[in-house]
């Protein structure tokens, strides 16, 4: 502003006093009069020299067209106009933005003038009889948290024994899966014995007390490596716990293992290799919550915590045949978790049953001062409340193009007494919303991109983060703002749909809904409802000669999950609908062969 003000002041003064020598003028610069406004285009020249040809080439990236005269003007004006706006990172006055600084712009999934979530806060634990404790360790390992917690509460099963069962399974099966980054047997056994002592003394904390679990390795754990799956961070040791870790400790849960994620939360390859699917060990587990998905399918722990920005709970839950609950944006605080995208990141449970996911959500939900997006919202869940009469929306064209399992899920909903309601979405360019995802991710990892850390990741293919985040530097800020406006339009359309339905049934991996619901913040629940045949291994990665995919003859039988989308902060209704489908499908208890 000082330079602009000087320009406005000194230019007219120079015309009026043309007879004064340059030396005298420099020696007696007049004071700045009040009220002199700033002006654009008068900053000191900055940046490298540009020409009309520079803009002609840039037009190809931006997909815009300037005339020759417009290019000429832009090239002349750029050095003293917009080039200097990059000073924060190019200098001379550089400013480092620390990792814990969130953008000032704040995403709220609840549209102005609307209310979201239930009217009351209520959480009812299921009253199902857990039955007798199995004699076989594998049967215990595959039991749901709902059943395990009843056995532990009744002191038919100790936390120490359960923890030892899972430690043995991690050591036996993880060499085939590569789901484990850090196993914590001594720490876990110490926590388990403490839980047993508390329970024996009558101080039972609730359904997660004494239950061993694992977390995706992007949640900080004090004194234990948190690597983000990335080579440069293999020895990173946080000094504090993430809020979710602290809340699970307060609930009495036993942290046993830090689980794999694709490096920096993309897909399923980390510095230890590719995490594999227990149901089909020739293919990846999908990601980026690859470790939580594989660990649940193979019963390496009782429950896990995953994260999602653009499908990272939904996709591995579908492929590995487990339950994945992605809560409403803001329901679970992300304090102490790796940031990929401030307005998109969500933490949620991956479990073996729908009820289990709600038991975990109840323990980790609620606001935290360290996450400006976290909110206080009521959670209403009663598994005994009937689902008859719930309106379940579906998109007819999507189901027509989906699998038999997806279509059968709608029939199961009808059998449960839910009312199918066809809905429609406008034919909009929903993928344009990912402008927001890539721009935020590039900002979060700007230092990695410029310092060369990205070059240390093992995956350097065109569809891996290093290339995407370099390309994202060339996204238009104008298009980012327009994508944000489109986001509001999409949120308004989803609000319209949820005025006529209570839940929405969609094919899990339908790209449009993964993008839509992540950008609008709606909760989703993915659960196994059947099996499909595959003749070729599936992959999160684009086809590449270095990664040929195995083919199978005859085809292999693998689990398939459908996804329910819920109203904002209405995970209780979402879970009740999911439990009804889970019960009628009758396939949740089947285990992957060999595990």
Write down the overall mean pLDDT.
Answer: 94
Instruction: Please give the largest β-sheet.
Output: 11 strands, mixed
* Spatial separation of the terminal alpha carbons: 67 Å
Beta-strand content estimate:
5-15%
Poorly predicted ranges (pLDDT <50, ≥5 residues)?
Answer: 1-29
Q: Largest sheet, order of strands side by side?
A: 2-4-3-9-11-10-16-17-15-13-14
Shape: globular
Can you offer a commentary on this structure?
The protein is an alpha/beta fold. The chain has helices at residues 2-16, 22-27, 52-62, 68-77, 87-90, 137-141, 145-153, 159-177, 185-200, 243-250, 290-297, 314-320, 354-364, 396-400, 404-415, 434-444, 446-451, 465-471, 477-497, 511-520, 571-585; strands at 122-123, 180-183, 212-216, 254-259, 269-270, 273-274, 276-277, 280-284, 303-308, 323-326, 346-351, 380-381, 391-394, 419-422, 503-507, 524-536, 551-566.
Which helices and strands appear, and what pairs or packs with what?
Elements: H1 2-16, H2 22-27, H3 52-62, H4 68-77, H5 87-90, E1 122-123, H6 137-141, H7 145-153, H8 159-177, E2 180-183, H9 185-200, E3 212-216, H10 243-250, E4 254-259, E5 269-270, E6 273-274, E7 276-277, E8 280-284, H11 290-297, E9 303-308, H12 314-320, E10 323-326, E11 346-351, H13 354-364, E12 380-381, E13 391-394, H14 396-400, H15 404-415, E14 419-422, H16 434-444, H17 446-451, H18 465-471, H19 477-497, E15 503-507, H20 511-520, E16 524-536, E17 551-566, H21 571-585
Parallel strand pairs: 1-12, 3-4, 3-9, 13-14, 13-15
Antiparallel strand pairs: 2-4, 5-6, 7-8, 9-11, 10-11, 10-16, 15-17, 16-17
